[in-house]
# Entry
Amino acid sequence: LAGALLSQDDQYEVRRLRLDASEPLAEDLTTIVLLRPEGVSDRLRWELGRFLARGGTLIVAVQAYDWSLASGQGYVYPQFRPVSTGISDLLGRHGVDVPAKVVLNDPPFPVTYAVGQLGQQVTVDFRWIFRLDAANFDRGTALANNVGGFVFVESAAPVTLDDAKLAELGLTAT
# Structure
C-alpha cells in the first residue's frame, strides 16, 4: 500500500527493501516506510538506527496485536495475539512507545459473516477496526496524495510520545 501511495507522487522513487538483508541500507535512502514490522533483526535495527542518525525519515505503521476470527457453533469471536515487532527498543530510544494495547472504536464497525455448514448469519461488532474518510486527510503530505474513498485501519495501537526526548534529539513526530 505505501509503495502504491508513494509511487503516485513524483518526488519519490519507491524501492522494496529486504528486511533480512545482511547488506547495509543504501546511503541514498531518505525515507523508509515500515509496514507492520514483525521480528525485526538486530542487524536491521542497527541499520535503522544508523539511518535515523544521518537524518533519514522513518514512517512506521506498527501494531501491538494481530487478530483473527474463530468460530463456534453459531457464533464467531476474535482471537488476539501479541505482535513482537522487534523495534520497540529502537522507537523507545527515539522517544516513541507503542504499548501492548489496542485502541477501541465507538461506535463499533459491524460485519456479518456466514458460519457453519448451513451458513447461519452472525454479525460481529468490531471495535478494533476504524473507517477513515479519506476526504478528511491532510493533502499537504505526500503519503495522503491521491488517496480516495475510505481507508480501514485494524488493530490500531496507541502511541505514546516522550516530548522531552524528542526535543533533546531534535525530532518531530506526526
The chain has four helices and ten strands.
